[in-house]
Structure formats: C-alpha cells, structure tokens
Design goal:
- The structure is a single chain.
- The protein has a domain of 221 residues: 3-Layer(aba) Sandwich (Rossmann fold).
- Helix 5 packs parallel to helix 6.
- The strands form 4 sheets. Strands 8-7-6-9-10-13-12 form a 7-stranded mixed β-sheet. Strands 16-15-14-17-18-19 form a 6-stranded mixed β-sheet. A 4-stranded antiparallel β-sheet has the order 3-4-5-11.
- Helix 4 links the parallel strand 7 and strand 8.
- The chain is globular.
- By secondary structure, the protein is an alpha/beta fold.
- The chain is 34% helix and 23% strand.
- The protein binds ligand DWN.
C-alpha cells in the first residue's frame, strides 16, 4: 500500500480507492504527442485527523494549468446564470456593506463570475494562473492577473489595492494542493470583517451518487463542511453559512468569516449533523464508496459491451475532465465509443487522454448521431436534454452512470 501525507494535518495517508494509471483530466492530445503522454497513479486517501478526502498523488499545477488549458467556464449558459446569481447574492448580502468594496476571485477562469462585479463597477481582481483564460477575462473587462495565489501574492495585492472585503472562488479551492498556504494568503488579504465564499463539488453528493468521475488530477480534494471547518479554524475562521448547489452534480457553497464576527446560520448546524449521520468523517464511508465505485465500473462496461454486441453505435456527449476518469478506470476506448462530441474548439480534432477516443465538434453529433450517447456532461443534463429533443425524437438514447448505470 502506498503511503503519503495529508496536505492539511500532515498525518499519514493510505490509499483507499485505486483508479490505476491515469492521464491528465484535460490532457486532450494529438497523435504526435502520444509518446510524451503523462500518466500518474490515481488513488484517494482520507485523513482521520483533518477529515480531508484527497488524492494521494497529484501532478504539478504547471502540468495541469497552462496556456493551453482546455476548459472555458463560459461553455455553459446555465453556468453563466449560476455565477450571476452567486455574484448578486454576495453584492446584496449583509456581509458586503463597505461603501467601496473590493472583491478578489481566485481562479476566475474567463471572468464568468467577476464580470458581474465589473459590470456594476465594483472594484475587483481576478487571480488566474492559466494565461489563455486570464486573457479572455481581461478582454471582457475583468481585471485579472495571471499568477498562482500565495501568501506572497496576497501581500502584493494588499500593498497595491488595500485589504479585500470578500474572497471568492468557484470550483477552484478543491484544485489546490497547498491549500493551507492559500488559507494563510486569504488571512493576509481580508480585512477584519472580510468574508470568504467559495463552492466546490460536494463530497456528500459524490458518496451518495457514486459520482467517482469527480475524482481526477485537478480535484486534489473533495470537501465536506466538517473538513472545511477544520481547515479554516487553523486561521481562526469559521463557517457562517452553507448553501447546497445543484451545479456540477451537487456542490456546496461555503461562507466563512473570522470567529465571532457574524452569526452562524442554522444551515451550518444542520449540515454538520447530516454529515455526521452520513459518516463523512469516517474512513469506513470511503471503503464503502470504493465498493460502490467497483460495482459501477462493472455495470457500465457490461452495458457498453452488450450494446456493441448488438451492433449499436455509441458516442460520448461532452469531453469532460470527468470522462477521463471513467474511460481510463473502466478501460473504455474507441472500440466501444466511436467519438465524443464537444463544443469547446480547443478540444476538437484531438483525442481523449489515455484511451484516445476522437473528440469531434458538436455538429458531428447533430449530423451523424449515434444510437446511444453517454452523458459525460451529466452535470449539465437539464441544459442538454432541453436542446437535444431532436436526438431523442429520432430514437437516440442516453446512458448515464449516476447515481447508477442505466439507459435513460
Ligand atoms: O472543476 C472543474 C470544472 C468546473 O470544470 C475543472 N477542473 C474542469 C471542468 O470539469 P469538466 O470538464 O468535467 O466540466 P464540465 O462543465 O462538466 O464540462 C462540460 C464539457 O462538455 C465542456 O467541454 C463543454 C461540453 N459541453 C458540450 O459539448 N455541450 C457542455 C454542454 C453544456 C453542452 O451542451
């Protein structure tokens, strides 16, 4: 068994769920780069001290987030609406009362959320290490610097812009291995009444829905309210509110402030009770999850092989980072899946990481639809179903693996 160390508490970490050799979740590539393709052993551990569910090994941030980063947040209309709601809820909240507030967002991607602050002329700064998406944000009028956030950068921001009133992040905190340094940076950046509001895929949902595809290189952690309270209490912060979100297959928005500054909402007490009942603080829960993941794999492979034996054509819908975990863990390649359609130009014409299934433009799906489409972007199911009525009307069927493998 591999041994590693918890990134929050420093105690020993054993690998509990093993996914085998895994390429980068967003490592879409051309045949000329096959011999240079990067793989690592993907496995999950759980610290009984920090209660943090985390990857044992993670590729370096520079390998994952660079000038060719393949994910642009604004590919989903629903997500744009979601981030507008997130921004407006902060602007209207009891927490952002300063006359001239200053808001910093970590990992602002192409500016999908900060744009809402920029449009209202609210002082803001996006910190986004991937240069291509940071450029897209700047072009939208979102003030963005392309750097990794750290205590050092926090000092620099305070020197240039003063202390911040709010620190925001969405689908970012769970990507950061040196999370303790980042919380230290937040502690430097915020004023005494400053708040932290961030959201990430929620461990409770992943366990319940067996959505193991939320585990990939970029997601070094899957958080719970229990683990977040433990982590931030090191810097005297506490959870003051939690709001469950339907995004990304079930996410949690965590709101924190310095201890005693704001009242702790009932939502926090209720969620902590629920998590205790669900066992999100127990290693046994992770071991049960492992069994469920193995079962899900068996079901999916059996279904695809059965359909293939019936000469059905199967394609994928959405070349998500999540699909990299499913395809490589289940060893599903071009022999089973003809192509994966995706609306993101940078992914099109390339092959999926590891198993090398062609990624094609969305138009291919429209013009040459399969009999069955695996919903790799299952977290956007509502948006996709609404626009793919034609596919279904012509007899096309969807396959999903959450919460269990089935044809929809
Ligand atoms: O945390 C992360 C989340 C927010 O986004 C990142 N680490 C990486 C990324 O993960 P993902 O790739 O699993 O995210 P999505 O949002 O599930 O990706 C959707 C993909 O599907 C995109 O490549 C766009 C594509 N898509 C499509 O082809 N047609 C999406 C929709 C809604 C569509 O209709």
């Amino acid at each position: 068994m591999e041994k590693s160390v918890c990134r929050v508490s420093g105690d020993a970490l054993s690998s509990l769920v093993n996914f085998g050799n895994m390429p980068l979740g967003n490592g879409f590539l051309l045949p000329k780069d096959f011999d240079r393709e990067y793989f690592y052993k993907m496995a999950v551990g759980f610290s009984e001290k920090s209660k943090m569910f985390q990857l044992i090994d993670q590729p370096t941030p520079e390998k994952m987030f660079h000038e060719e980063y393949a994910f642009y947040s604004s590919t989903s209309i629903r997500m744009a609406e979601h981030f507008k709601e997130f921004a407006n809820s902060i602007i209207a909240s009891e927490y952002l009362q300063s006359k001239d507030p200053f808001v910093v967002e970590l990992g602002c991607n192409d500016g999908i959320m900060l744009k809402n602050f920029a449009d209202k002329k609210i002082k803001h700064l996006g910190v986004e290490p991937s240069k291509n998406v940071a450029k897209a944000a700047n072009e939208k009028g979102v003030r963005t610097c392309s750097e990794f956030f750290s205590a050092e950068l926090a000092h620099k921001i305070v020197e240039e812009d003063g202390k911040a009133d709010a620190f925001l992040a969405a689908n970012v905190m769970c990507h950061i291995p040196n999370i303790v340094d980042v919380v230290e940076g937040i502690n430097i950046l915020l004023n005494d009444k400053g708040i932290i509001a961030f959201e990430d895929p929620y461990l409770g949902d992943v366990i319940e829905k067996v959505s193991y595809d939320q585990i990939y290189d970029e997601h070094v952690f899957l958080f719970s309210a229990i683990s977040i309270n433990n982590l931030f209490s090191q810097f005297d912060f506490e959870l003051i509110d939690v709001i469950h979100q339907p995004t990304h297959g079930g996410s949690m928005r965590y709101v924190l402030a310095k201890k005693g500054v704001f009242k702790i909402k009932e939502s926090v007490i209720k969620l902590l009770e629920k998590e205790n009942l669900q066992g999100l603080d127990k290693i046994e829960t992770v071991l049960k999850f492992k069994e469920n993941v193995e079962h899900s794999k068996g079901e999916l492979v059996t279904l695809l092989k059965k359909l293939k034996a019936q000469h059905k054509r199967i394609a994928g819908y959405g070349a998500t980072s999540k699909s990299t975990t499913i395809l490589n863990y289940c060893d599903i390649g071009p022999d089973l899946i003809e192509y994966i359609s995706d609306t993101t130009p940078i992914k099109q014409g390339k092959l999926t990481p590891g198993v090398h299934i062609p990624v094609v433009p969305y138009e291919t799906f429209k013009e040459n639809p399969p009999d069955y489409a695996i919903l790799f972007a299952w977290n956007h199911a509502e948006e996709i179903m609404a626009k793919e009525k034609d596919f279904m009307a012509k007899g096309g069927k969807w396959i999903t693996h959450v919460p269990n493998v089935r044809i929809l």
